[in-house]
């Protein structure tokens, strides 16, 4: 019987939570899976034109990862893939595809893997858990990947916390944005990073919205990536003057995330972000999004499973 799997986009790092902190937003990759006697992979929509329509598709390879972890062969199926997650923009499009694929493979196999195993397969494949954990669980997730497993704490988003994203039109590959990072950091930078990441996690857990802009300071990755994203440095310095509670590069970029208080207007922040785009020669769009609290959903014949 046909089932669908829907996985959300995500924004990783949130400033200092490099490779360890992320939240999910309601833009989705959706798979429609129908067991049948042969494998068919069908990417749908203009955004996926050019992605492979066979077993080399990233989604299908993710399904196969679930089978490998379960130690079983993957049953054949027709897999239709759609997405409204912008690709290569720092909004976790590959994590959404990876998580949706692993969950779909697990579902086809009769769910031999529990959520922790699904997360661990995804985090090991991606190399860090900060996009895949919120894509799987929704909300805000603090996570770490080590030799023994992927360990995480999921937080419900604080009341009144909303997200505004500036999504540039240009693409930036994660590998390019990781290649510009230093190999080593000083003790001062390390202490700065871990104290801010810890403060940010605690502020998010307790809904201390007034601390966000201080806690989101980062010298681990954003200063190195700023030359790749016109306007980023200005936004990190100035967004709080225009209504943002804090600002960060979203994942490896080029999307920039600002937090806002949902009780206030976001028009001044939008005007400011459009102004930065204009003076930086950037084109793109600015949208407000809630934080997705649901994560990945499997649905069979209209019933969420
Ligand atoms: N934490 C990752 C990075 C997210 O910043 O490179 C993108 O995959």
TrEMBL record:
Coarse class of the protein's main subcellular location: cytoplasm
The protein's Enzyme Commission number: 2.7.1.39
Binding-site list for ATP: 86-96
Pathway where it operates: Amino-acid biosynthesis; L-threonine biosynthesis; L-threonine from L-aspartate: step 4/5
Domain GHMP kinase C-terminal: 201-263
UniProt xrefs under Gene3D superfamilies: 3.30.230.10, GHMP kinase, C-terminal domain
Coiled-coil region: none
GO molecular function term, any single one: homoserine kinase activity
Keywords assigned by UniProt, alphabetized: Amino-acid biosynthesis, ATP-binding, Cytoplasm, Kinase, Nucleotide-binding, Threonine biosynthesis, Transferase
Catalytic activity: L-homoserine + ATP = O-phospho-L-homoserine + ADP + H(+)
A Pfam family reported for this protein in Swiss-Prot or TrEMBL: GHMP_kinases_N
Span of domain GHMP kinase N-terminal: 57-139
Compartments where found: Cytoplasm
GO CC annotations, alphabetized: cytoplasm
Family named by the database record: Belongs to the GHMP kinase family. Homoserine kinase subfamily.
PANTHER family recorded: HOMOSERINE KINASE (PTHR20861:SF1), HOMOSERINE/4-DIPHOSPHOCYTIDYL-2-C-METHYL-D-ERYTHRITOL KINASE (PTHR20861)
NCBIfam families named among the record's database cross-references: thrB
HAMAP family, per the entry: Homoser_kinase
Role, per record: Catalyzes the ATP-dependent phosphorylation of L-homoserine to L-homoserine phosphate.
Protein name per its UniProtKB record: Homoserine kinase
Source species: Deinococcus reticulitermitis
């Amino acid at each position: 019987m046909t089932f669908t799997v829907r996985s959300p986009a995500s924004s990783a790092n949130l400033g200092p939570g490099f490779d360890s902190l992320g939240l999910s937003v309601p833009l989705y990759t959706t798979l429609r899976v129908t067991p049948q006697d042969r494998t068919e992979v069908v990417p749908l929509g203009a955004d996926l034109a050019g992605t492979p329509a066979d077993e080399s598709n990233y989604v299908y390879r993710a399904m196969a990862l679930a089978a490998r972890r379960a130690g079983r062969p993957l049953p054949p199926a027709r897999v239709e893939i759609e997405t409204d997650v912008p690709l290569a923009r720092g909004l976790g499009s590959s994590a959404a595809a990876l998580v949706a694929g692993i969950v779909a493979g697990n579902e086809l196999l009769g769910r031999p893997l529990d959520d922790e195993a699904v997360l661990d397969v995804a985090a090991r494949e991606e190399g860090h858990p900060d996009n895949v954990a919120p894509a799987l669980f929704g909300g805000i997730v603090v996570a770490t990947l080590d030799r023994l497993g992927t360990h995480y704490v999921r937080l419900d988003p604080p009341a009144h916390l909303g997200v505004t994203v500036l999504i540039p039109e240009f693409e930036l590959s994660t590998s390019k944005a990781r290649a510009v990072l230093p190999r080593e950091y000083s003790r001062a930078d390390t202490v700065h990073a871990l104290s801010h990441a810890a403060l940010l996690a605690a502020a998010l857990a307790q809904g201390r919205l007034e601390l966000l802009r201080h806690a989101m300071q980062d010298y681990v990755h954003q200063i190195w990536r700023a030359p790749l994203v016109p306007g980023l440095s200005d936004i990190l310095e100035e967004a709080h003057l225009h209504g943002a509670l804090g600002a960060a590069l979203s994942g490896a970029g080029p999307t920039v995330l600002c937090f806002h208080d949902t009780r206030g207007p976001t028009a001044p922040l939008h005007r400011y972000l459009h102004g930065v785009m204009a003076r930086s020669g950037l084109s793109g769009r600015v949208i407000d999004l809630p934080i997705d609290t649901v994560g990945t959903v499997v649905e069979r014949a209209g019933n969420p499973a």
